[in-house]
Automatic annotation (TrEMBL):
<dbReference type="InterPro" id="IPR023753">
    <property type="entry name" value="FAD/NAD-binding_dom"/>
</dbReference>
<feature type="domain" description="Pyridine nucleotide-disulphide oxidoreductase dimerisation">
    <location>
        <begin position="391"/>
        <end position="497"/>
    </location>
</feature>
<dbReference type="InterPro" id="IPR036188">
    <property type="entry name" value="FAD/NAD-bd_sf"/>
</dbReference>
<keyword id="KW-0285">Flavoprotein</keyword>
<keyword id="KW-0520">NAD</keyword>
<comment type="similarity">
    <text>Belongs to the class-I pyridine nucleotide-disulfide oxidoreductase family.</text>
</comment>
<dbReference type="InterPro" id="IPR050151">
    <property type="entry name" value="Class-I_Pyr_Nuc-Dis_Oxidored"/>
</dbReference>
<feature type="domain" description="FAD/NAD(P)-binding">
    <location>
        <begin position="8"/>
        <end position="335"/>
    </location>
</feature>
<dbReference type="InterPro" id="IPR004099">
    <property type="entry name" value="Pyr_nucl-diS_OxRdtase_dimer"/>
</dbReference>
<dbReference type="InterPro" id="IPR001100">
    <property type="entry name" value="Pyr_nuc-diS_OxRdtase"/>
</dbReference>
<dbReference type="Pfam" id="PF07992">
    <property type="entry name" value="Pyr_redox_2"/>
</dbReference>
<dbReference type="Pfam" id="PF02852">
    <property type="entry name" value="Pyr_redox_dim"/>
</dbReference>
<protein>
    <submittedName>
        <fullName>Oxidoreductase</fullName>
    </submittedName>
</protein>
<dbReference type="InterPro" id="IPR016156">
    <property type="entry name" value="FAD/NAD-linked_Rdtase_dimer_sf"/>
</dbReference>
<keyword id="KW-0274">FAD</keyword>
Amino acid sequence: MTEESDEFDVVVLGAGAVGENVADRASRTGLSVAVVEHALVGGECSYWACMPSKALLRPGDARAAARAVPGIGAVGQLDVAAVLARRDEVAAHWDDAGQVAWVEGAGLTLLRGRARFTGPRALAVEAADGTVRAVTARRAVVVATGSVAVVPEVFAGVRAWTSRESTSAHRVPARLAVVGGGVVATELATAFSDLGSEVTVLVRGDRLLASAEPFAGEAVARGLAAAGVRVAFGASVTSASRDDDGVHLVVEQRPVSGQGGQGETGVALPGRLTVDEVLVATGRRPATDDLGLEVLGLRPGDALEVDDRLQVQGVGGGWLFAAGDVTGRTATTHQGKYDARVVGDVLAARFDPRPAAEAADGAVPHGLSRQGEADAAPWSRYRATADSSAVPQVVFTRPQVAWVGPTAQGARDGGTAVEVYAYELGDLAAASVTAADYAGRAQIVVDTSRDVVVGATFVGPDVADMLHAATVAVVGEVPLSRLWHAVPSYPTLSEVWLRLLEAAGR
């Protein structure tokens, strides 16, 4: 039964990092904005993904860094209880009071409940107590409901872990199977190995991190093997069951070849594997199943196709937008927040409620009309251009992997003629200061027609902080001749830029 009714200029579905940023930016010209959330305000990243996973990984990273430097002395085992306690603090003990205070302090309205479309710009928000509130958006609705883990049917009934259960676990299983070979799989395999689990990674393909340069996956495979993690390539789980002895997996394994495959770092498994827990990290899908999209002519469960303004295609009137994982464009928090800034700024300007004279007094950002139509510049702040050309990614394994833009093969497949230049980070002077046996690699992909960097990959300890310089070079389309004049400090790992330019003949 509907008991309450409300109207807002903008309604944002989802109060994760993406939704919060949309709402904040959209409200900056005076629009009234409501945010609807049925779970914890702050979303997946704060409680079950980015933050708790990095809290689990950081102690092992610090221990490895200390062990690599002569003179520090013995570095012992991790204090598991202390690591988990610190993780709990980072995840705010799964209490969103702090995030709620931020939302309210920003002048936004928080609506607790599940939202479903009942028509254009019309929603029903059902609270936990069954109360239903009719909510109308006068101007726009933004869907920022994120994504959910995909758990294959074979794992039904075994209470498999996903990223949620693993990042919030309060015990460390003695034996853990990780199914998958991507970012979540490799990071959590690293974290639980650090904490003392006997970890086996089951990879359907023949390498890890399939979307990265091949040498990156090879380095991570070697790092996992060195840590005692068993990595099985070409492995598929055909059945799974659970009893008092654990989770029993029947595994089929096909032969694989090539670098990074079974012949180099992988292991051959028996047909049956018994573990205490199985973590399924085989992908995610947009969380659009239960939003009532059918009343808008859209199919529930599908990604919402958007243009570079993040306006949903196939819905008339220009009122429906989406940002983050739900669009299927990107799948990282930082890129989702980028999309959120774009759509929030578009809404703030397009539906600016202030009188024209007041809005013209510097309040509407340069390059955007009062109708919210961006200028023709390819890198207008009102277009999510980076989603197609400059997406950065960091994997906090050991070694770390960081990249931006396409791989060399991806660029060629897209029709760009490129040259590739690489340098071993261990040959830099800074490497000998950082660790006695520092190993890593940097590579840039150069568009030969424009003489600009379109992609870059770094592999090695602590390379995550090197990525933004490459991202700036890619987004700025800086010619190599100009990069030559960006002098790297000595002795730092950033000196690799000089070596890469020298390899390119500059």
